[in-house]
Amino acid sequence: MPPSPDQIIRPEILALSAYHVPPASGMVKLDAMENPYSLPQALRDEIAQLAADAPLNRYPDASAVSLKARLQEALSVPAGMDVMLGNGSDEIIQIIALAAARPGAVLLSVEPAFVMFRMIATFAGMGYAGVPLKADFSLDLDAMLAAITQHQPTVIFLAYPNNPTGNLFDAAAVSRIIEAAPGIVVIDEAYHAFADASFMNKLTQYPNLLLMRTLSKLGLAGLRLGLLIGRPEWLIQLEKLRLPYNVGVVTQLIAEKVLQHPDILLQQAAAIKAERAALSSCLRALDGIEIFPSDANFILLRVDEADQVFQGLKQHGILIKNLDGSHPLLKNCLRVTVGTPDENVQFLAALQASLKQPIN
Ligand code: PMP
Questions:
Q1: Which residue, judged by its Cα, is nearest atom 1 of ligand 1?
Q2: Residue 306: Cβ within 10 Å count
Q3: Residue 269 to residues 38, 92, 191, 260, 338: CA-CA distances in angstroms?
Q4: Res. 358 pLDDT band, cuts 50 70 90
Q5: Nearest CA to ligand 1 atom 6
Q6: Residue pLDDT, tens place only, 40-60
Q7: Is the pTM of this model over 0.85?
Q8: Ligand 1 interacting residues, C-beta cut-off 6 A
């Protein structure tokens, strides 16, 4: 008898649901925090040439020396800190969890948070503890400190700004957590480009702090490039788990090329921030919705009947994220990525129509 999956696969994996990516073909795609803008034509032409000339028969530079140097400069990485690259920051979360999965170890985060923190803890065979945020999605510092004492987590992940809520946690509270943590604290700054705050300058102060960034939300989600910044003593260990060629030739070449023009991505981020403000004020003017403040490129809102509004939007060709049911604090919550002005107008019109639909 050949083995069945439930005889071979770990029970906690059998119990997991796969990360769901809904089909989006033909839809206005406002579900995944992508930058809606493409790159200028001249830069796209340069990229086309780079791709044409890329040595695809060769493995990529395993240590990506040139790209890392460009990133260190573009992101103003403090002197003395190293950079590790991942195939998206998802992969970096996985590397950290695999490395810290000592027997009985716990990964601690907040709830609701980026779902991959919990999923990847499970992949890595770690325990997971999620401390609920307060109803306004701010950090519950007392509960976090109590959970740290109770679980002695080897790793704490905090997204700053947080996904799916969009807010920045109180920086002093985050610092208290870093100081109280017996293990490492990873501040995930995936949405940094849309916020005016960072823990980058705290890296030198806190020996147990690591900082994660990604190019995904900045406009290069398709490239898959994330990075971890931290002290060499941590990164030397984590590098042992990074598969040697995790960042491909084409990703390295294109990322480096685009980063030669940091102004382009920053201008796009500024445009998205301006649209976020415009979209927020239009949403605030509507009856029947609660809007939560955002320092990210998406907005969390609460309606009376999230499922109905989500389906109504879908019928109008607009795809957003329905968070209802994912956590008690997210009851009737929807998350919309800030799109182009035109996409946002389409979203608002479809939203108004969907809010008005009778409940059946
Ligand atoms: N961190 C946070 C907080 C996110 O929301 C996401 C993507 N949704 C990621 C990390 C992963 O991003 P990527 O793998 O594209 O770098």
A1: 190
A2: 19
A3: 12, 24, 10, 16, 11
A4: low
A5: 190
A6: 999 999 999 999 999 999 999
A7: yes
A8: 33, 88-90, 114, 159, 163, 188, 190, 214, 216, 221, 226
